[in-house]
Amino acid sequence: MNTPLALAAAWLLALAGPAFAQEAKAPGTAEPKVERLVHEDEGSRIEELRVRGTTQRIVVTPKVGTKQSYEILLGDGSRDLSEGVNTTRGAAGKRVWHVLSF
């Protein structure tokens, strides 16, 4: 009489086992701090993206003139931004315009 009840309980415990076996997230692997800073005055709007305190991207949108935004290339040491024949990008600190964006 208690056999079906015991089998059902054992079956539920077998299914719930993997839920208890999951490891807790390590406290040292938190998401990186992401900041989006906007500096704006009467002449331009500057949007800055920082990840873990390091500036990753700067986009400047002028409010007068062409009003087409451009990005300032940043040198982070991971790629060659020097000028030359064999390089495809300009030097760090130069501005670039995106012709096509999706």
If you had to describe this structure to a student in words, what would you say it looks like?
The longest helix has 18 residues, at 3-20. The chain has one helix at residues 3-20, and strands at residues 34-40, 44-51, 54-62, 70-72, 95-96. The chain has a single domain (25-96), classed as S-adenosyl-L-methionine-dependent methyltransferases, CATH 2.20.130. The radius of gyration is 27 Å and the shape is elongated. With 102 residues, it is an alpha+beta fold. A five-stranded antiparallel β-sheet has the order 1-2-3-4-5, with no helix packed on it. The mean pLDDT is 78.
Provide a short characterization of the protein structure.
This protein is of the alpha+beta class and 102 residues long. 18% of the residues lie in helices and 28% in strands. It is built from 1 helix and 5 strands, in the order H-E-E-E-E-E.
So how many helices? 1
Number of domains: 1
Q: Which class best fits the helix and strand makeup?
A: alpha+beta
Distance between the termini: 67 Å
| β-sheet strand percentage | 25-35%
CATH architecture: Single Sheet
Q: Note the overall shape.
A: elongated
Main sheet: strands, sense, barrel: 5 strands, antiparallel
Helix coverage percent: 10-25%
Low-confidence stretches: none
Residue-averaged pLDDT: 78
Give the neighbour order of strands across the main sheet. 1-2-3-4-5
What sequence of helices (H) and strands (E) makes up the elements? HEEEEE
Any idea of the CATH class? Answer: Mainly Beta
- Rg for CA atoms: 27 Å
How many beta strands in the DSSP annotation?
Answer: 5
Q: In the CATH scheme, what's the topology name?
A: S-adenosyl-L-methionine-dependent methyltransferases
